[in-house]
Amino acid sequence: MHKTISKKKPKLGQHFLRNAEILEKIVKVSEINSNDKVVEIGAGMGDLTEILLKNAKEVIAIEIDPVLYKILKERFYGKENLVLINENALKFPYEEIGQFKVVANIPYYITKPIIFKLLKLKNLISMTLTIQKEVAERLAAKPSTKAYSALSIIAQYYTQAEIKFYIPASFFNPPPEVESAVIKMDRRDKSPVEVIDEKLFFKIIKSAFGQRRKMISNSLKSIIDEPKEFLIKIGINPIKRPEELSIEDFAFISNELCKICKK
Ligand code: SAH
């Protein structure tokens, strides 16, 4: 049955995960409990939903595909702690639902936009996501590693991210082209660095990693007038590459730059 659905709508990222042992493991690492409101993005045929319902107080399951939505409605008929929503998860008003956790096997084509959207929500407690291995590794990466990127810093500014385990492609039906990983991201109460101007901080990070092979003095040319002189003055070695700089370094650069701009 899933083969027909996925053939008709390959663009919806439909790769179903129906292995009970793995689904249980995902719910276990998500640490949800009977007080939690859980949002599932892309509920598919509801195998993960079913386990979430047993563990959480309430589940909001969002599924864009009307065919799957109908299957879910029939499967969970009469379940009082389930709210089923037939909508694009990128358009759902998350800020209006109070404190919640996300547990989801994310459709891969919306991985980044949905993570960016969720990261910024103050009412999010945590998210446990099954996503492409490469993206998970970038989200959790530490400085001076290949995977360390703008995404790592943005994610770690808002959350504490940890890869819990990997899932081979063959566990999905149909198998995706990439391996997957389950990552848990706990939203921080307070960011690990103090940043005066968040917009500038993110702009610097994006610009730095936009040209990650260049020295930091070169990759910041579009933002700072004389980047080399500025970096030397504030005590940052201008020949470093962006991946050699920590989140603290980027916060420092952005705050020092702010001081000048405000003068
Ligand atoms: N959770 C299920 C399905 C995962 S596949 C399982 O683990 O088996 C991803 C699911 O997300 C598919 O059912 C797909 O139809 C749905 N989906 C794709 N794009 C979506 C979107 N923008 N909003 C909500 N659901 C979406």
Automatic annotation (TrEMBL):
Protein name (Swiss-Prot/TrEMBL): Ribosomal RNA small subunit methyltransferase A
HAMAP family documented for this protein: 16SrRNA_methyltr_A
Top EC class for this record: transferase
Domain (Ribosomal RNA adenine methylase transferase N-terminal): residue spans on this chain: 22-189
Family the UniProt entry places it in: Belongs to the class I-like SAM-binding methyltransferase superfamily. rRNA adenine N(6)-methyltransferase family. RsmA subfamily.
CC terms in the record's Gene Ontology section: cytosol
SUPFAM superfamilies the record matches: S-adenosyl-L-methionine-dependent methyltransferases
Superkingdom, natural source: Bacteria
Species per Swiss-Prot/TrEMBL record: Thermodesulfovibrio yellowstonii (strain ATCC 51303 / DSM 11347 / YP87)
Subcellular locations according to the entry: Cytoplasm
Name of the encoding gene: rsmA
Function: Specifically dimethylates two adjacent adenosines (A1518 and A1519) in the loop of a conserved hairpin near the 3'-end of 16S rRNA in the 30S particle. May play a critical role in biogenesis of 30S subunits.
Swiss-Prot/TrEMBL catalytic activity: adenosine(1518)/adenosine(1519) in 16S rRNA + 4 S-adenosyl-L-methionine = N(6)-dimethyladenosine(1518)/N(6)-dimethyladenosine(1519) in 16S rRNA + 4 S-adenosyl-L-homocysteine + 4 H(+)
Keywords in alphabetical order: Cytoplasm, Methyltransferase, RNA-binding, rRNA processing, S-adenosyl-L-methionine, Transferase
Chief localization: cytoplasm
The EC number(s) this enzyme carries: 2.1.1.182
GO biological process: rRNA methylation
MF annotations from Gene Ontology: 16S rRNA (adenine(1518)-N(6)/adenine(1519)-N(6))-dimethyltransferase activity; RNA binding; rRNA (adenine-N6,N6-)-dimethyltransferase activity
Origin organism lineage: Bacteria, Pseudomonadati, Nitrospirota, Thermodesulfovibrionia, Thermodesulfovibrionales
Residues annotated as binding S-adenosyl-L-methionine: 15, 17, 42, 63, 105
